[in-house]
Amino acid sequence: MLYTCVCERPVTFCGFQREQASRGVQLFHFASEPSNTTETTMAWWKAWSEAEGRPVVGALNFNAAPDAQTLYKAMKGLGTDEQAIIDVLTKRSNLQRQEIAKSFKAQFGKDLIESLKSELSGNFERLIVALMYTPFKYDAKELYDAMKGVGTRESVIIEILASRTKAQIKEIIKAYKEEYGSDLEQDIKSETSGYLEQILVCLLQGERDNATLYVDTALALQDAEALFAAGEKIRGTDEIQFITILCKRSATHLMKVFEEYQKLAGKSIEDSIKSETRGSLEDAMLAIVKCTRNIRCYFAERLYNALKGAGTDDGTLIRVLVSRSEVDLNLIKPEFKRIAGKSLSSMIMEDTSGDYKTALMNLCGSD
């Protein structure tokens, strides 16, 4: 059987040159410059282990007790010292914030999140409170908020489920159950329908294969042919075939599938999805493809769409900055500048104001 070795190099594209190895195995080694052969970036399957990607790294010589006291004093009596809150919470890591919350409770007998909610308001409150949740609880909260009340914000559900690993999704399901006493899959089923429901539930199952160095090129070609037969080759679209392959194959495997599909169809998988599907199903499929190819570019687009034009999608702006600030935000910013033609920090400066802007800028860091 023939295999392809798909490798990665941090930050830059990976260039490969093919070598024939023994026993029917295809291997690749790095070329000095990117080639047109199987190019990958650091996609979602390895995005959150890169120290250089984190603008928020926490405080050295950290001590939760004085930070908790600073926050208590900032909220005590008449008025609130917003700058003191910003200085503490935007310059600490998430783990450090959890320790501060424990110390705050131990020293003053109060819940820090509830205290912050009572003192702050608007988008500034929304941002600061978001910082206080652990990553999995924050994702669970965003999913819950996207489904509660009238209407469903499908874009939020798509963003979270398409961009998290299967291990992370398992933790999100657990956090959702603990926080809201409800089953995430059942809630998604009750709020969505049709093929969108199927693709979201499929992502939620966490059945995607783990990314490996070796890709079965014969299977990748078979999958590419199946996708071609399910869309471009027929009148109408076999959506289930698209959903099955996109949701269950590993990211490294999908990269090879996309390459083979381009050869077969004479167009990218993205272009085919756009021509074969519509609405939220199209959005979900494209999100999976984008996160597989380059998760930084995906989040850069999300941020750009949140900031461009009249008005600001503050929910998306807050969610992406908070969830990626200790992951890969520093690596998202160059992609943003390429898409927008200006820096992320400059657009935040233009679109926001007051304490909200100050806190966002602290999270974003300099470009």
Task: Report on this structure.
- This protein is mostly helical and 367 residues long.
- Among the domains are: 3-40 and 208-277, Annexin (Annexin V, domain 1, Orthogonal Bundle), CATH 1.10.220; 64-132, Annexin (Annexin V, domain 1, Orthogonal Bundle).
- The protein contains 19 helices and 4 strands.
- The strands form 2 sheets. A two-stranded antiparallel sheet has the order 1-4. A two-stranded antiparallel ribbon has the order 2-3.
Present the secondary structure layout.
Layout: E1 3-5, E2 16-20, E3 26-30, H1 64-75, H2 82-89, H3 94-108, H4 112-119, H5 122-132, H6 135-147, H7 154-163, H8 166-180, H9 184-191, H10 194-204, E4 214-216, H11 217-230, H12 239-248, H13 251-265, H14 269-276, H15 279-307, H16 314-324, H17 329-340, H18 344-351, H19 354-364
Antiparallel strand pairs: 1-4, 2-3
Helix pairs in contact: 1-2, 1-3, 2-19, 4-5, 5-16, 5-19, 6-7, 6-8, 7-15, 9-10, 10-12, 10-15, 11-12, 11-13, 14-15, 15-16, 15-17, 18-19
